[in-house]
Amino acid sequence: AQSVTQLDSHVSVSEGTPVLLRCNYSSSYSPSLFWYVQHPNKGLQLLLKYTSAATLVKGINGFEAEFKKSETSFHLTKPSAHMSDAAEYFCVVSDKGQGGKLIFGQGTELSVKP
Amino acid sequence: DSGVTQTPKHLITATGQRVTLRCSPRSGDLSVYWYQQSLDQGLQFLIQYYNGEERAKGNILERFSAQQFPDLHSELNLSSLELGDSALYFCASSGGGWDRVSYGYTFGSGTRLTVV
Fold first, then answer.
1. Which secondary structure element, helix H or strand E, spans residue B68, and what is its range?
2. Phi, psi of A84 (to 5 degrees)
3. Phi-psi map region of A25: left, alpha, beta (phi>0 left; psi -120 to 50 alpha)
4. Highest mean pLDDT among A25-29, A40-44, A50-54, B24-28
5. Residue A114: how many CB atoms within 10 A of its CB?
6. Quick check: A99 pLDDT over 70?
7. Chain B interface mutation, best of A44, A49, A60, A74, highest count of B Cβ atoms under 10 Å
8. Which of A68, A107, B94, B113 is buried most deeply by CB count within 10 Å?
9. Mean pLDDT, chain B, as a whole number?
10. What residues of chain A, 14 to 53, have a C-beta less than 8 Å from chain B?
11. Is the pLDDT of residue A68 over 70?
12. In this predicted structure, what is the pLDDT of residue B61?
């Protein structure tokens, strides 16, 4: 069965410094992987997705993620953090075995200090 | 506006009561999903409907039920409510086949349910 582990429950960075949010997944076949962002009291917004095309995926707001099959990782990065990036980030894997079900990680809260 | 509409945005009700949450999917999307987000459980998949039929079931309690209507909107019914049912309930929709989510979902803004 698929699963997702977000390695940090909370990450704090200074504005203008790089962001790294780590995610490892477990899947018995080629998965589809996603990162979603949730701002306080808001819904979930798709940042980017990997669907077996290019392993380096570019998303919105300057975020990127690299699919590394050998490491079963899908870490999210951004070169320079902005105050508006402060939010909860979820790494997600699709569950091919059960319809369209998505499996969410526990989330990483990103804080950005001025 | 994501295109997925959930009503109401907030709901406060007493234990033992029954509520109905409503979701209108993005135009053209046939799949509707319901998720529950709570502090202790995170985001939990409840149920999926595709073009009116139930397709996948997750950690949905027997006190909860859902349906998808011919116009593709969906309703999640929660009955005999308990304090622990207080959570944010999200609806999401996707296009394509019922088992294809290679492009992800579009989420609504959620219904915050508070049981007192």
1. strand B64-68
2. -70, -5
3. beta
4. B24-28
5. 6
6. no
7. A44
8. B94
9. 91
10. 32, 34, 36, 42-46, 49, 51
11. yes
12. 93
pLDDT at B54 > cutoff 90: yes
Q: What percent of chain A has pLDDT over 90?
A: 69
Q: List all residues 6 or more positions away from A22 whose beta carbon is below 8 Å from its beta carbon.
A: A6, A7, A8, A73, A75, A108
Q: What is the DSSP string of chain A?
A: --EEEES-SEEEEETTS-EEE-EEEE-SS---EEEEEE-TT--EEEEEEE-SS-SEEE-GGG-EEEEETTTTEEEEEESS--GGG-EEEEEEEE-TTSTT-EEE---EEEEEE-
